[in-house]
Amino acid sequence: MRIIKAFLVLLAGVLMLSACGDRSSTNEKSTSSQKTEETVQKSDIPTLFIHGYGGTINSFGGMIQRMEKQTITKKEAIITVMPDGSLQTEGTLTDQKNNPSIQVLFSDNVNNEWNQTEWIYQVMKFLKEQGIEKVNVVGHSMGGVSSLRYLTTYGQPEDAPEIVKFVAIGSPFNDFVDTSAEQDLKNLTENGPAQESSRYTDYRAGINNLPKKLPILLIGGKLSEEAADDGTVPLSSALSIRSLLKSNGNPVSLEIFTGEKAQHSQLHENTDVDKKVANFLWKE
Asked: I need a surface site. Which of 18, 86, 99, 231 has the fewest CB within 10 A?
């Protein structure tokens, strides 16, 4: 009997310790979740998401939706730019501190970067008229190209909001020139591309217009460790602008993604890219 009683006491003690361990684990998970949520800096500064060549509402639709589920952002509006520069708007900016997102769509989604630059300016002027003083910009592919052209052309005009942060995803800043056979990435990012396209020389000519304190994140992809591109845009082109930006005084961050999910049209569907964009915009 004494042995049985001792065994029962020991068993009860083990069960109590086990229960305490479960509660401790639950508390740690809860605390970790709270810390993740608390690191997101919430403001009323809208972020413009601008698609690439041939892009549609689906281009950034998935990324914004995934971020909404994590309460990182709140999609509040869609602005569609018509070929004549007129705007069609859906939704309303609420001025709430919920990191509002705005999708910018081009009705003629295969037009050139010069017209897109003017269309971006029309969007900016409209937002300024609505009382918006600051925005972030995220561009995929040609959306990044045209956004940088806007910045190097107009800089910070008084009739447009200040751009606080800029993200370019898979953007061919040196057109489709691949310099990987002539220089490694260190040489490229420190000294610029060995061959310059006319697009790149345009940027160089207008670099002094770019606000010097504007933080910029450049994201590039390659299909494998051995690959030199994301299936469409050479990595050397996506990162080509780094040296020019640094010489202008801009803080520049680089991120390279590798594998199937780093394919050009998959970059904005890649959840790891989501995290990098969100961290850069709202957690730093």
From this structure: 18
